[in-house]
Structures are given as structure tokens and as C-alpha cells.
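note to self: dont lose this again. the chain is below, predicted strucutre after it. 291 aa total, dont forget to put it in the shared folder this time
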Amino acid sequence: MLDAARVSMFGLLDENSKAGGDMKLAVMGASGRMGLALIREILETEDLELAGGIEPAGHAAVGTDLGRLVGRDPIGVSVTDDPLELVTWVEGILDFTVPEASLALSALSAQARIVHVIGTTGFSSAEEETLRIAARHATLIKSGNMSLGVNLLAALTERAAQSLGDGWDIEIVEMHHRHKVDAPSGTALLLGEAAAQGRGARLDDKRVAGRDGMTGARQSGDIGFASLRGGSVIGEHTVILAGAGERIELTHKAEDRSIFAKGALAAANWGYNGGKGRGPGLFSMKDVLGL
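---
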């Protein structure tokens, strides 16, 4: 666990130390699937500087040059296991890790007054509240999915749920690679929230998952979830709206993780360049895209 109390010792509230030049970004979980995709995108994007990468102490990638990590020439910046080495001078961090790490990083981001882009999923209600507290001092941009297509799908889902009403049953089916550890996916929950909002309801009151055995008849207004895992599937999501005698299916299929990386960089840029006038807060890709 990271010690947020140490942050003030490094003078992180000195904004002058971060002024000028390209936006400096650090990648959390640098050697993971999303970490590698983020590093590649940053290296190919103008006005962004790859300032460093983080992995836990003892990880095999610590000390490895970030260029080498993605099969390129060295860039002179290596993976470190101490985030304080980076947050003292970066403008933003990109975080696709696990809830425990993201919560600790949000505390550091709040102390440092920087942009924290969170693609981590699987937060509990209590952990979500911790992020809201951190967002009083930092620009936190959190989404279960950073892609433009998925966020457009969420907007369509909300509109469809609003237009069709409780007479149409809503089921959300998602499939991911065999290594994904949380279910339903953050994207599925994002779509569920959109459906609930369209109906003026709370997802927690309508969510149904993991049907098995004699469950009884489906209740009107329920929003069901089904999670599939296998192979190397990056991410597939379908919102099914089933009415009497007809059915609508809205589907998004991710074919390359770069779509999530591009979205995360767009979020970081939005938070950095627009955030100075916007102030701290907890935002989503809906805000970034103006949906």
C-alpha cells in the first residue's frame, strides 16, 4: 500500500515544479496489457511526454527501460517501484490496475493536484466514495471503458431504455479473455448504469446477475447481467432489449486495446488543458466526449 502521508514531505503542492512543456504522464502497471498499450500510444503522440512507469517492488520489470519494454530503442526512462519519484513532477497518471492500488494512487493525486485517469474496475461502493473524496482536490476521470464506441453505446442504451420503458426487458452480455478477474466487467456496469438512468432507477435496485437454478420468473424492470470468459477476447458487450414479439440488440466489439489507450490519453489531455479552469472533480468519459 502506498503511503499518501509521505507526499507532503516532497513539496507536491508546488505547481511551479510542473509548469511548461509537454504534458508529462506516468503509466501505472507499466508492463501489463493496458500499460504496454498506453506506453506505445504516448510515444506516438505529440505534446505528451512519457515520464515513467510503475510496478510493485520486486516485479521483474522494475529497472527496465520503457522503450525496451515495448520492443523499441531505449528512451532513458525506466520502470520504478516508487510513485513518489514521479508524482512530484508529472501532470497526470494513467491507471489501469486494481482497486487497492488505484485508491492509494488517488490519495497521492489529491495531494499533488494532478490528473488521475482511472480505467480500473471492480470498486466497491465504499471504495467509490473514497475516490469521490480524493476528487475534491484532484481531477479524476474514471470510466469502466475509455473507448468512444462504448460511450456512444452507453448513450444509445440510456435513450433506448428511456424510450421503451419497463415493458422491455434489458439483459447485458459481456465476454472477455480468460485472465480477467472481475465480473461483470466495468463496461457492462457502465451500460447497466446507463439503462437504469434511462428508466430513472438505481442500478443497485434493479441489478440481477448469476442466475442459476429455480430463480422464478423475471421481475419487470430488472437489468440482467451475464459474464463469459475465455481465450483472448479483448472485450465484447451486447445490450439486449427484449419486448413482446421483437428484440433490439446493441453490440460493441473491441478488436485492439489501442482504442482504450487512445481514449485514456484524450481524457488526460481534457483534464489537463481544460481542468485548470474546471477545477477538481470526479468526471467520466461522458464529460470528456461531451455526450
